[in-house]
Design goal:
The chain is an alpha/beta fold. The chain has two domains: about 325 residues, Up-down Bundle (ABC transporter transmembrane region fold), CATH 1.20.1560.10; about 240 residues, Rossmann fold, CATH 3.40.50.300. Helices cover about 65% and strands about 10% of the residues. It is built from 23 helices and ten strands. It has a six-stranded mixed sheet with strand order 6-7-8-3-9-10, sandwiched between helices. Strands 2-1-4-5 form a four-stranded antiparallel sheet, with helices on one face. The longest helix is centred in the N-terminal third of the chain and has 51 residues.
Length: about 600
């Protein structure tokens, strides 16, 4: 449990640790006031049972003299008022302490969730190649809340109950040390036995719950991301089988944990009732009658009233913390990713080499291998892309064409070799500058459920969108007429999640318009026109070149016929350039290219 507590502290930042410290201080003050309230009931009950104590007891008689009270009933009213004052003061302090608890919990849920989201976004592109996005969504949207409410909240409340209980126990030791020792030992021993027996089961249920929760998110993500295919094949009911099984395991684990958390309450309540009867009998026998024993009995009865719920809540808190331990460890690991060593430097004090974008792009001895792969995807690649030229990469599936574009974009880092723009090498330090001058259009365009204008000016605030540039980009991408003539709200038309209201070709042309809106010096097309017919594809490419004659176009070709006019074509096989040249040259000099054109076309 200490290791879990230390793990919780490591996740918190300095401000959150300070807030937790304030909450603990408030908790201690609240416990002191509560035990004072418990102690104040003893003289009140003693005086009610034997009013003569007011005169015979030194402390009570001195208090009566100092307050200037003559009448016994008035003094009893003062004692009653004192007891009620402690109760109301305790109520106020408990309310304030609870406010600090809630503020602490809500603050860390917000802060940890935001830190985790930033952390996940800042991880390198290669990390996303081995992760399911449903895990990211679950981690940020669900796991943070589970850890905060299932680990931090029980820890804080458990500490509060523990401190309060300790102060009450200390009070009982002052009244009757021997009896307090036996009762404390008996209660602690009983709970320790139950804890040892049951807590390991809670931990196992927590692991099952965590695993089944991951599966639930996975199945839901997979199901609704393929809704069109599922409906076309009437697979709706079958697609939910995996989710149903995972949800069943999730519910069973949660129910079992809840039962285990409450078992000790039933046992201890039965033992406490029998123990309280034994205490009453002992006190009456040892103090010579019910009259003398009544004040102490009242304190023990009130203490039992306070302690029993606290002890049950302490155990329940420990069980919840153990149940959510897998999520806590997972969250800690997610937050421990060293951003500074993995992503581009944000240190503005370091000089950033400026690119001369009028220079050629040089790929020098470049090699790359994907994580968990022993084979090179790109093997000692060397080429020069002239500024303002049109260059295409062709080759069989899996040959490394798209990987070359990812390397040029800086999404992945080469194992060896370098990429230069002129004489300046591409590095983490100058990646932001480079990417601000490069546009990338993938085959599958991401379309947000916003307006067409917002999708084209992707990443800009609505107030900053330049509509003249949006319209010009759409004209070049050959999508302007469709937007203005066929859509009632034109550029303010919402396109649905993932652009579901658009055809594949329309989505790709919006992607091209988005790339052109940026006014790049380089545009990378990764089979970005595969859904267009030959005529439209040729019109789009020629329109780009006519409107931006100095732009460099680098394409992964889908159809060979559309790259006939390109300045250079590279045939890629197994990460290597096997031949290069213009379209006409390659038809003559390369049998591989000739076979490829015949197969593709």
């Amino acid at each position: 449990m200490i290791n879990i507590f230390l793990l919780q502290l490591r996740i918190l930042n300095k401000a959150e640790k300070r807030l937790s410290f304030l909450a603990i201080i408030a908790m201690i003050v609240a416990a002191m006031i509560e035990v004072a309230g418990v102690a104040s009931i003893m003289p009140l009950v003693a005086v009610l049972g034997n009013p003569e104590l007011i005169e015979s007891n030194i402390l009570l008689s001195r208090a009566k003299y100092i307050l200037g009270i003559v009448n016994y009933n008035d003094f009893i009213l003062v004692l009653s008022g004192l007891f009620l004052s402690f109760l109301f003061l305790n109520l106020f302090v408990q309310s304030f302490t609870y406010y600090l608890y809630i503020k602490f919990i809500t603050d860390i849920e917000y802060n940890i969730g935001l830190r985790l989201a930033k952390n996940q976004l800042n991880k390198p592109y290669s990390w996303y190649l081995n992760i399911n996005t449903s895990q990211i969504g679950r981690s940020i949207l669900s796991q943070v809340g589970q850890v905060v409410h299932g680990s931090y909240s029980p820890m804080l409340f458990g500490l509060s109950y523990l401190v309060s209980s300790l102060f009450v126990v200390v009070l009982l030791f002052f009244i009757d040390p021997l009896l307090a020792f036996y009762l404390t030992f008996a209660a602690s021993f009983s709970y320790l036995i139950l804890y040892k027996i049951l807590i390991s089961r809670v931990s196992r249920k927590g692991k099952i719950r965590d695993q089944s929760d991951q599966k639930r998110y996975f199945y839901i993500s997979e199901t609704f991301s393929s809704i069109k295919e599922l409906k076309s094949r009437d697979l709706e009911s079958k697609s939910l089988k995996g989710y149903a099984l995972a949800s069943k395991d999730f519910s069973k684990a949660f129910a079992s944990s809840a039962l285990i958390q409450n078992i000790p309450r039933f046992v201890i309540e039965a033992l406490a009732l029998g123990g309280l009867i034994c205490v009453i009998i002992y006190l009456i026998a040892s103090r010579g009658g019910i009259g003398n024993a009544l004040p102490v009995i009242s304190v023990y009865a009130y203490s039992c009233y306070k302690l029993l719920p606290n002890i049950n809540k302490i155990y329940s808190s420990l069980a919840q913390i153990s149940f959510h331990q897998p999520q806590l460890k997972s969250l800690y690991n997610d937050l421990q990713y060293n951003i500074k060593s993995k992503i581009l430097s944000k240190d503005n004090s370091q000089p950033k080499p400026e690119f001369n974008l009028a220079k050629d792009l040089v790929i020098d001895s470049l090699s790359y291998s994907y994580p968990q792969s022993s084979e090179l995807s790109i093997d000692n690649l060397n080429l020069v892309i002239k500024k303002g030229s049109r260059v295409a990469f062709v080759g069989p599936t899996g040959s490394g064409k798209s990987t070359i574009l990812d390397l040029i974009l800086g999404l992945i880092s080469p194992l060896k070799g370098k990429i230069l723009i002129g004489e300046i090498q591409l590095s983490n330090l100058n990646l932001p500058t480079w990417r601000s001058n490069v546009s990338y259009v993938p085959q599958n365009i991401h379309i947000s459920d916003t307006t067409i204008a917002e999708n084209i000016a992707f990443g800009e605030d609505i107030s900053d969108i330049d509509m003249n540039r949006v319209e010009e980009s759409c004209r070049i991408a050959r999508i302007f007429n469709f937007i203005t003539c066929e859509l009632q709200e034109q550029f303010n038309t919402r396109v649905g999640e993932r652009g579901i209201r658009l055809s594949g070709g329309q989505r790709q042309r919006i992607g091209i318009a988005r790339a052109l809106y940026k006014r790049p010096s380089f545009i990378l097309l990764d089979e970005a026109t595969s859904a267009l017919d030959n005529t439209t594809e040729e019109l789009v490419i020629s329109s780009i070149k006519k409107s931006f004659p100095h732009i460099t176009i680098i394409s992964v070709a889908h159809r060979i016929a559309t790259i006939k006019d390109y300045d250079m074509i590279y045939v890629i096989e197994k990460g290597k350039i096997t031949c290069k040249g213009t379209y006409d040259d390659l038809l003559i000099t390369s049998k591989t290219f000739l076979r490829f054109t015949q197969t593709v076309n």
